[in-house]
């Protein structure tokens, strides 16, 4: 139970999602080509790394970034089965690398940032909408499937329960099992073989 609650904590989910993004970037060697000002020498690595997680400049990059975020977005969806918690968690995770990318790029390459900002913000909005839409739709679908399975199991249990109920043919007393005698009127309900009878004790 403690392990389950640990994985449901937002901080833990955030860390898992960020680690997954880092793993995807390192595994694929995806790199966005961006320009830097000379003053950004020491910060280029951080800016470049953040750009590789949230930005794209061609059709391959668009597919790669969207697919990466969709996969990472599945983690809260599969854990919570609640669209509000899922899209809230996913947008929170999406916000942080975007925020720091914008801040660092503006701070250390202001000229290039000002020129590319309209393009960047449109891409961020599109990706954010994609993440939110996916989180909501998949969460609702999984919740519907889960509820359907639960209802089917309840119906099966009710059918099993009905098969194990018995009613005294004489006084109408109901039992949740198949007793030998009716405790109310002493009618012999079933014999040693479990066959129903209507003889009084």
For the termini, the CA-CA separation is 52 Å
Largest sheet: 2 strands, antiparallel
Question: How many E strands?
Answer: 4
**Tell me, what's the shape?**
rod-shaped
Instruction: Give the helix tally.
Output: 6
Mean pLDDT across every amino acid position: 81
Give the strand line-up of the largest sheet.
1-2
What does this protein look like?
The chain contains six helices and four strands. Helix 2 packs across helix 5 and helix 4 packs across helix 5. It has two domains: 2-160, no CATH class; 166-200, no CATH class. It is 69% helix and 6% strand. The mean pLDDT is 81. The strands form two sheets. A two-stranded antiparallel ribbon has the order 1-2. A two-stranded antiparallel ribbon has the order 3-4. The longest helix has 54 residues, at 110-163. It is mainly alpha-helical.
């Amino acid at each position: 139970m403690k392990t389950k609650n640990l994985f449901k904590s937002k901080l833990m989910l955030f860390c898992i999602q960020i680690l997954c993004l880092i793993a995807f970037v390192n595994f694929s060697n995806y790199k966005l080509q961006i320009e830097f000002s000379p003053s950004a020498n020491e910060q280029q690595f951080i800016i470049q790394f953040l750009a590789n997680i949230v930005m794209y400049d061609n059709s391959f990059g668009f597919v790669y970034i969207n697919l990466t975020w969709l996969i990472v977005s599945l983690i809260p969806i599969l854990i919570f089965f609640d669209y509000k918690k899922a899209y809230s968690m996913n947008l929170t995770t999406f916000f942080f690398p975007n925020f720091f990318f914008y801040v660092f790029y503006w701070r250390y390459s202001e000229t290039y940032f000002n020129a590319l900002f309209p393009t960047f913000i449109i891409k961020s909005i599109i990706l954010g909408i994609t993440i939110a839409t996916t989180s909501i739709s998949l969460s609702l679908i999984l919740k519907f499937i889960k509820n359907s399975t639960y209802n089917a199991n309840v119906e099966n249990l009710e059918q099993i329960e009905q098969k194990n109920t018995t009613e005294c043919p004489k006084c109408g007393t109901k039992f949740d099992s198949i007793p030998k005698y009716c405790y109310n009127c002493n009618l012999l309900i079933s014999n040693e073989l479990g066959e129903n009878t209507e003889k009084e004790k």
